[in-house]
Protein 1
Amino acid sequence: MKRFLLFLTVMLSVLSCSEDRGTLLKVYNWGDYIDEDLISEFEQWYLEQTGEEVSVVYQTFDINETMLSKIEKGHEDYDIVCPSDYIIERMLRADLVLPIDASLLGDTPNYMYENLAPIIKKFLSMVDGYGKDANDYTVPYMWGTTGFTYNQRYVSPEDVSTWNVIKDDRFIDKIFIKDAPRDVYSAVIQYLLRDEIAAGTVNRDSLMLDTSDENVALFEEYMSDMRHRVAGWEADFGKEQMTQERGWISLAWSGDAVWAVMEARETGVPLDYAVPMDGSNVWFDGWVIPKYARNVKAATFFINFLCRPDVAVRNMDYIGYVSAVASSEVLEAMSDEEAYPQTVDASYFFGEQALQAHLNPSMYPDRSVIDRCALMHDWGTDADKLISMWARVKGNQMSSWTIFVIAITVLLIAAVKIQKFILKRKHSIRRQRHISGHAERSAKAS
């Protein structure tokens, strides 16, 4: 409620002084992707650091493409947005982002790059900037893997050790798949070409750039054959379906899995998360400053604030995703020997001090898991081809969940029409009676 009231206050100030943007910062982020208490704290911190006031207008989107379309059209002057890795590539190619200038911080400590994890720096080096260095335009925010959230009552770790579990008839109508073609394609194609990867004739990283007709057809055939097992194609509701035991397996991003596991624990539902042995995706989302930004200084400070180790820890505790910040303070805060007695090798993230770390393996997977994952990329000119393929994959999907929703909708529409028909019929009868009565009275009068 307080964010809503702040939003109204800020919008009134915008209307009264539309040209003054030095005291206004417009942020566009994914839903449920920040501890919103940090926003007001940033406003206070900005005042302390610069002696200037700023008010944040915070808005959210649900898919990358929604955000990108607004930036491409130039109709929105957002100061800072949070796209995924492949969208960052697309924005760099289209010259839609500005360089991030740390000199704007003045005497304020620069937290943006010095605490980045080695693996995150590797991700940045793999971003195809089309002649631009992604390091100059992007500060990574959160990162993670793609795998399965699963209900341990009905599904074993062995079941979800392979992507082929989605074709297991034991789980018909109990599987939710992300309506995210890039994530699904990039993971499943690794399963389909697992023998070639094992033989060394195919490289995982190069496979993420391979959208050949042969591979696309291979994926489409495989997914089309299993779609009758799917309970639903979801963008965000899969984690709730899992916590309520309406699904037993859900293809999920690791942060959503962490959230679902914690929520389900409160009601005694035993969820867990696993990355299949066949291989999967790693991904990251990062902050960029769009070319139409009008408060670049405050945007730079906002990014820097979120990279502060204490802020990063609070954010992770709230949203379940993993910050790109890898300082010793973060390692200490996230370590818990009692909760995670089995150690993981997280040296790829924190360095040698994390060779045997007591960390949540869903958030910080063992190095062996990371070694079998690859970073996704933009599909470039093949995007339309792959999106059309994905539409065909889902096109004939009629799961019980889908049928249920359609049936309820049809029944509601039918009920409304029947009600309208009854009311119309009653009105017609009353009208006929009125006319008949009037005719009788006229006849008697004459």
Protein 2
Amino acid sequence: MSIKPIRQKWKSEITDRQRFNNQMHYKPVDRCFNMEFGYWNENYNLWSIFKDNDIKNNDQADIFFNFDKFKIAWGLDWIYPSFEQKVIEIRGNKKILQNCDGLIAEVPADGHDTIPHFLESSIKTPDDWKRIKEERFNVNIPERKLNVEELIKQHPAYRDYPLGIYCGSMIGKIRNMLTFEGLAYACFDYPDMVEDMVETSCQLTENILDQVLGKIDFDFASGWEDICFKSGPIVSVDFFKNVVVPRYKRISKKLHQHNIDIWFTDCDGDVRPILPMLLESGINCLFPFEVNCCCHPSALLDEYGKELRIMGGFDKMALGEGKQAIEKYMETLVPYVERGGYIPFCDHRCPPNVKQEDYIYYLDLKEKMFGITV
């Protein structure tokens, strides 16, 4: 489908790639890098601007709004083959299903977006993990071999946009597989099993990196954890320090050997208890930085200085409160955009309570304040 952008691209004097790299390294830029994290699925059915133009997903929306180009290369870093996704039964207005990680979950039968209520994991004991690891986490299967030549064709050295390499998840996807409660118990009941799961995750990521580093010139690395909530991390700080950090450091060493010194991880919630260890590990950028579960981005950017970068951090609550709240919050970000190391966008997927007209106002205001070339 050919998508016609509804907005003009922000005026530019340098490429998107140069801009991203300069901004993340506190160097001069023509203007702020322009990007967003995306939208809840409901937005595509509620906003006429999406419905009338047949925009159905975040990739299409990025083109539609003419954001700066931003790409990430991926490999098969997790379970394969995945479990069959299937509906087990329907109980009133709830649907019981098995997801691709083998979890039994309860979700709304009408399909609206919400966090599933997980009922049961496929892994309850070390014997379960041993079996599933042998069946679905073999690092040497052909499906884990990347088509590097095709990636090079897709993302040539002369590209004008930033390209990242995805560095997986050391503990977040394990949480998904075990459930929140299951991981909490397993860290105490079966610590060796959990550490082996982390080690397996690390090896799967290293397998991807070993295939592409040195062959493609990446601008950054990315990851996904979602291991924090409003009261901090879901694993103990000691566990994170002793089990997760050493694996991050192995990955970071490979990245730095190939001049990749910007690494962000997608982690919701209050990351402050583990932030020093993230920085020590080589993860030096937070994304999408949820404000209400943590703090205003200025607090950490002031505390850690140029050691830290943040992408995101525009309070979604302010975005839903209308134009006055949007402008008030945007003004608080000005000195940090000007300083560098900070790219503002909604601090998670834009929720459906945000009015379409207010979101357009937000985009207009962001361009007015941060999109003027110098």
Protein 3
Amino acid sequence: MNKEKIKSEATTPLRHPSKFLYWLLIPFLGFLLRIILKVKTHKDLAVKNIKGPFLALGTHSSALDFILMMLALIPHRLNIVCGRDLLTWKAVKPFIKYAGLIPMSQFSMDIGSIRLMKKAIDMGCNLSLFPEGKISLDGRQIHFTTQSIAKLVKFLNVPVVMCHNNGGYLSLPKWAPKMRRGRIDQSIKLLFTVQDLQTMKVNDIFNRIKSAFAYNDHIFQKENHIRFKTKAPAKGLHYLLYKCSKCGTEYEMSSNDHELTCNVCKNTIEYTEYGEMLAKVPNVARFQRIDQWYDYQRQTIKELVNDENFYETHSVVWAVSRDGKYEENGDGELFINTSEIGFIGKDLNGNPAEMRVPLKTLYTIVQKVNEAVDLTIDNVVHRFYFRDCRYSVKYTLIVEESHKRIQGVQ
């Protein structure tokens, strides 16, 4: 990010969120969510008595997390730190002016956003931050993160509240076209006092944060035998589980309302409202839960990137975020190897275009269900749509496992 952009970010107007938003709209949405999703919230006394400014951290299992956190912390209003892509969502645009949102580049050092956060704290604002940076793909906490969140927490030097939920992922899975009715258990507790932050080392702060973020919605569902009601429990699951668990073929999976089927070996698995994976006789159900199947895919990618000569590339359409919408900017190839991910192609005028991002500093990427991935470079979101309408989850796993390999992390 150049100095002009940093200065521009640091001087962006800040405001407290609109009272109308909090006293009318948010409570109304909360009333609907409690009825539809059976949201139960437990809030510790220390949080009930807290005074701002403070920082609220939250697990990010679904798009509902923002509203759930806002509801749980009323009467406090929250300035939400969000990815720049969120500002392009049609449902969000009408409220941008009133919500006091603070945009941040995902998975990159965004000095301008950090300065805005500090400025907001100095104004007496309460911040909301989801440090995982994206919605969970597999119903668990993000596989890897850095100590940057601990350093940020220590830098802001205000009380830290933890908002943790189970069931959010299963209520609105990233891969599913519709919401499901089940149960969400949310706990709100004080994670750090100012005195804690002033006396604790960064590594100790980091370890406490990691521990607080642990969850697995699939185990939560199984242990509590919760039904997440929907007419199509398996619809869209092939987006996430792209590799056949029987024959190993990739991107030949298809899903209907109740079943996930390999188009090559015809192995068919029923996915139920209780999160069960059942084989359709005479087929084989190798895994009992979604997260176990996803781990199988991760393991094969881990083995793949151990080859230093690994290289994969696919044809994409290149789009760029401008004025709150994505506009086509060219086309070419999105490549990835064990050290970098990048694009080589042409813009709409036929001029050569190339960009590269080292995986040493990129521990994951944002993927879209319409089979696209985002790369944020110098605060500009570049979106690459795969022409074959596949590969985004695989690219995500390659980025994650390559980064861990470079960092020497198991």
